[in-house]
Every structure is written in structure tokens, then in C-alpha cells.
Amino acid sequence: MTEVKANMAGSVWKIVVAEGETVSSGQDLLILESMKMEIPIPTDDDGTVKELKVSEGDFVNEGDVVAILE
Amino acid sequence: MFQKVLIANRGEIASRIIRTCQKMNIQTVAIYSEPDADKPFVREADESYPLGGSRVNESYLNVEKVLEIAEQANVDAIHPGYGLLSENGDFANSIEAKGVTFIGPSPDVMTKMGSKVAARKTMQEAGVPVIPGTESAVDTPEDAIQAAKEIGYPIMLKASAGGGGIGMQIVNNDEELQKAFESNSKRATMFFGDGTMFLEKKIVEPHHVEIQILADGNGNTIHLFERECSIQRRHQKVIEEAPSPFISEDTRKRMGDAAVKAAKTIGYKNAGTIEFLVDKDQHFYFLEMNTRLQVEHPITEEITGLDIVEEQLRIAAGEELRHKQENLMIQGHALEVRVYAEDPKTFYPAPGQITSLSLPEGNHVRHELAVDGSSFVSPFYDPMIAKCITSASNRNEAIQLMEEALKEYQVEGIKTNLPMLRDILALDAFKRGNTNTHFIETYYLKEEAK
Q: What residues does the Biotin carboxylation domain cover (chain B) (predicted)?
């Protein structure tokens, strides 16, 4: 099981994967929006999206877990 | 003079404008988005009205809503601050159509200077030196590569309608140009609705030096000397100072004259700034004109004793300029640092909850604040949360004051660029005035890497 964490604080602009979806290393899971910058959050591992911990519009802090893969 | 002014902006600049209005006994109206409801500027205004929404396009850029509030509050003028609607000619036109004064230049001058291609052409015609580059907007990567043959690499690719660094990229060869053109043109279309690009020669080791001007529309145009704003990250300014430690007295005079001539040529009215790049041999080139109040205007106020917002209000109300060029002189030296809510090394944004704020005090330390000790810094807006300005009789003293101020400056709860500001102020290269636009990469990031 792998936790994917936000690398910056911001609001969740778009979630581009769904729970249960198979993802591969480097694939973007969601896009954060912060102060006029849009930062994609990719996974470093292959796996299946077990749980999305955030919804679009949520505010996340740096280091918060946004998704769990298995 | 106006009775009541609406400030179509947020944060520190809204507070700054309210302060001068209060001094002049002018009533103030603030407008605010949902995340800004608890910010200082909303409390400081005599009246405040919610715009609804969070993102700028659903709040501060909602022209219809702004006009509706202006009418409801019965204001006689709108101050647009900087950014947001400040350089939007259509907005200025629509408020003037309702009999409300726009505190700024005429809409057609704004529109002309807002297009980089048109601005460059106008300046060239006025005899102001411009950077070698494309004379008109370039639509395709193929045309760009053709133009690059004549200009020579390295080249700066820019979006015609861009600003704030969006759509700008340095390219070194045809292949890089092809790629950068496609991606930046796409972004420019998305952000500004205009994907046309232009190319210009990249000036090596340039200094960013800008001239503040004031014009009353009755033929009186003056300049308030220069600001050196070379220390930048992501093409945005971090530390500014006035006067420039780099330009000679002769260059200062020639740049001031060129700026006044340019402003007169376009029939400019109100406060404006002409930005130049100055190369290592003191050649200067027109970069762009900002037809509004500038973020870093306080350092000019510190060295001239003028209140630029007051001058703006007086000019917009139809008064003649009260100052003559020959009576103005540079008094001492001023520095400004911008406090950004961001990681000091990666420059990634760092919004969040401020838990405490402790500011340095002193007669020669000036603060412009967007937040207080319990503000939530929203992810929807610019990361600048405050500015700190020091002034003294000379540069060394102003630097020393700033170093002391930054030691005491504490923001808890979020990451800020304060550690970076402290490190830069301590560098010998900064103290020597070696502040070209590559300063952060050349000195600060290199020092960090060691």
C-alpha cells in the first residue's frame, strides 16, 4: 500500500483518476491549484487507486495524503 | 475632490489606498470575495460589499457585480489598484459610461500599452530605444523560426497579451523555439484569449530599472526617478530599491527624459511606470509600460516625499500637478522586500493558516499588509502577503535597517520567503549592488547549493 502526498499546499482543482482505476508510475492522479500555479500530483508507483482522500475544491496542506494505492 | 471612492482590489494595496483616502477625508468602499471576508482591508473601509465567489474570475474580475456595487454605494470614482481590472480598458470605459471616474489613464492609452506589440511600436516612434525583435505579432512556429534568424539567439519568447511571467520563455535554438512556441501560445490562448506571440533578443546580464511618471493631462508630465527591481524569481520581483545602485547619473537623466517624452507622446494621464532593461554598458531598452499604480511604489514615495496615491486622486479629480521636475530630488535610499507565502527554495506556493505575526517596529520601517496574525492565506490569489520598506540617508544604512527588520519579522503557521530575503540581504553581491535579473540563480541558489 502506498500513500500519495501533496507536495504543496493548495486546493484540489481536478481529480483525474477514479477509485479502482489502475495507474502507472508517473501518471497524474490530481491537479492542485495554488496562487495561480497548477501543480499535477503524480504517483511514483504502479498500482490500483484504493482510496481518494480528497474531493475537488478541498484545501490540502503540504504532506497531506491525497490518495492510497495498492 | 471625490466624496466616495470604491477600491476594486484586495489585500495590501486596498489598505494602502484606503489610508490615503482617509487622510484626504474621502469615504471608502471595499469589495471582497468569500475567502477575503475577514481580511484587514474589509474592516478598514467605511463600507464593504461582498462580491461572492473565490477565484478572481468569479469575484474581483466580475465587472457586472463591481458596477452594481459602485451604483448601489453611489461612489464617484473607482481606484483599481494593480493587477485585476487595473489595466482593463473595457472596464474603464464601462464605469465612465455610468458617470463614475476611473482613477487611471484613458481607456484607449491603457489598451494600446496593454498590447506589447503596439506598445513597442509606439515607443519606437517616440524615439525610445526598444529591444531588437519582431515588429508584429507572430502567429505560427514557422514564422517565429524565420524571425529568429534575423534577431539571433538567445531569444525571449513572450505572449502578446501576457504579464506576470505567464507565457514567457527563453529559447536557445530552433528546436526549443518550436516547442516553446506551441506550449506558450496554447497557454496564452487559455489565459488571455490571445495566442499571438512575439520574439525579442535576450539581453545578457540585464538590470530591470523602471521610471515612475506622473502626468496631469494638462501638459504637465514629470518623472519621480527610478526603481531598481532586478531581484526576481519566476519573473516576478522580490526586492526593489530606489535609487538604482547601478545606473550612472547620466543614464538616470537620459532614462527620465525618455520616460517623460514617451508619456507625453501617448498623451498619458495619471501615474504610470515605464520599465526598461539596462545592459552592463548602461544601454537601456523599453520593456513595457504599466498604466497603473505599481506594487513597489512605496520606495519612490520614501525617496521623494510624495504620496503617489494622493497624486493619482488629485489628477483624476482634474487638478493640476503640484510638483515641478526641477524641484524634485532624490532624498536618501529606500528598499522594499515582498513577503511571499511560498517555499523559500522551490518558490512553490504555501497558502494556509497564519497563527501569529510579529512585525519589526521603528521610524524608518514601513509595512504594507494584506494579512493579520490570524488570517487564512487563500490558495486563490497572489502569494504576496506583505511588503516591508526601509529608508535611510544612504544605501548601506537602508540595507542595515532591513537586515535588522527581517531578523525580527516573524510569520508563524505558513512557509514564507523570509529566510530567502534574509540570505539575499546578507550576500556581498547584494551589498555591492550586483543586482542583475539573474541574481537569484547566480548568487542565492548557488550559495544554497554549496
A: 1-445
Interval B303-350: pLDDT, tens: 999 999 999 999 999 999 999 999 999 999 999 999 999 999 989 999
Domain range enclosing A25: 2-69
Question: Closest partner residue to A35 among B166, B382, B415, by Cβ?
Answer: B382
Number of separate domains in chain A:
1
Burial of B46 (0-12, 13-18, 19+ CB in 10 A): middle
Instruction: Note the pLDDT of residue B446.
Output: 78
Q: Do A9 and B342 count as a contact with CB atoms less than 8 A apart?
A: no
Write down the pTM of the prediction.
Answer: 0.88
C-alpha cell at B325: 521636475
Q: Are residues B349 and A61, on separate chains, in Cβ contact within 8 Å?
A: no
Q: Which of residues 24-63 of A touch B (CB under 8 A)?
A: 33-37, 39, 59, 61-62
Cα of A61 to nearest chain B Cα, Å = 7
Query: CB atoms < 10 A from the CB of B375, how many?
Result: 20
Q: Is the pLDDT of residue B164 over 60?
A: no
Share of chain B above pLDDT 90, in %: 81
**Domains of chain B with bracketed CATH:** 4-103 (3.40.50.20), 132-201 (3.30.1490.20), 207-449 (3.30.470.20)
B348, A39: Cβ pair inside 8 Å?
A: yes
ipTM attached to this prediction: 0.80
Q: How far is B78 from chain A (nearest CA, A)?
A: 25
Query: B163 pLDDT exceeds 70?
Result: no
Distances in Å between the Cα of B120 and the Cα atoms of A23, B117, B262, B306, B447 are: 49, 5, 11, 30, 37
CATH code of the domain in which A22 resides: 2.40.50.100
Q: Sign of the CA dihedral B300, B302, B304, B308?
A: positive
User: Residue B355: its pLDDT value, please?
Assistant: 98
Sorting pLDDT into bands at 50, 70 and 90, what band is B204?
Answer: confident
Q: Determine, for residues B343 and A39 on separate chains, whether the beta-carbon distance falls below 8 Å.
A: no
Nearest CA in chain B to A61: B352
* Residue of A31, A34, A58 to mutate for B, most B C-beta atoms under 10 A: A34
pLDDT of residue B166: 65
- Compute the distance between CA of residue B71 and CA of residue B221 in angstroms, rounded to an integer: 33
